[in-house]
Amino acid sequence: MFELLRTTPLGRRGLLQTAxxxxxxxxxxxxxxxxxxxxxxxxxxxxLGAQILLCNTYHLHLHPGEDTIERAGGLHSFIHxxxxxxxxxxxxxxxxxxxxxxxxEGGVHFRSHVNGDPHFLGPExxxxxxxxxxxxxxxxxxxxxxxxxxxxxxxxxxxxTLRWAKExxxxxxxxxxxxxxxxIPSGDEGSTRGKRDGSTxxxxxxxxxxxxxxxxxxxxxxxxxxxxxxxxxxFDGYALGGLAVGEEEADMYRVLETVCPLLPxxxxxxxxxxxxxxxxxxxxxxxxxxxxxVLPMRIARHGTIILSDGEEIKITNARYKxxxxxxxxxxxxxxxxxxYKSYLHHLFRTNERLAETxxxxxxxxxxxxxxxxxxxxxxxxx
Length: 382
Description:
The protein is α/β, with parallel strands linked by helices. 42% of the residues lie in helices and 18% in strands. The strands form four sheets. It has an eight-stranded parallel sheet. It has a three-stranded antiparallel sheet with strand order 1-2-3. Helix 10 (249-259) links the parallel strand 12 (237-240) and strand 13 (269-272). Helix 6 (123-133) crosses helix 7 (151-183), helix 7 packs parallel to helix 9 (220-233) and helix 12 (295-301) runs antiparallel to helix 15 (353-380). Residues 191-200 have low confidence and may be disordered.
């Protein structure tokens, strides 16, 4: 359930309620691909202010598999994460395996990038896998073409995405009804509509929110078509996919300026795969509520450090060998407030794993703090 608290010139301020806690919007989701983040513990994520974790259906399906996770009590129990979890559908990953997959109307046949074993992922299986995980928010299975693909290919992807979205919603509703019936005593189905005291019934809080994904590349009319037809299907939230994949920044903003005004105000809006700080701020101002991206962590692992004043430095450069000053005195990361740049330079140069931890905590911490600062600024304008 999503509550829009206010709309400001900086963006939308809201509250997203899930079975594992409330999330203040706008927010950024750290990407724990296989249920963990390289170099960062769950305690680190808590300390940095992460409200939610994104996990990847494709990777968790390959190993350990949804059956193992379900027997462990679900993904929250399996990875020991008590806050909300969003799982993607796996669609982006399987469509990126160009030489190892075959698209059919029912879904995608592909071979594991790990060992070459054959697998299949489609609308129904993506829903069943994510329900087995027990995630709080789940994504429809969609086709994600490059934003620069030919129009005819983007048109086909939009049409297939819409057909698959309808199938995802059908299977999702069946699985939700099955969960409700397994909890509610016979003849008491009315309790799913809420209690007389106004509280949320237990059964309702266990049901995941399903997001439809708006495709269409840079073709604005196809984006509108996809958005309007998904809105008519009435999803719990709406995501924009297929952006931040090589197109010009201005083109991404143009798509948001076209699509966001079409979306229901009382539903959360998710821009997938965006994590550059100035882009996050701009996209929030255009009406986006939630984001995810591996970028802050990826560049950190290769020695690019984002500082709280906005500067980016390459810590492996020789100039930092004698930089005996703290990495970032204003950082939300405790490591960056005490360790020297010269020390982090040394750790990277000697391939010490602690380098990755310090760098990742710095970049992720600043990304999360920027979103927190935006929320505070929005509250100050009420």
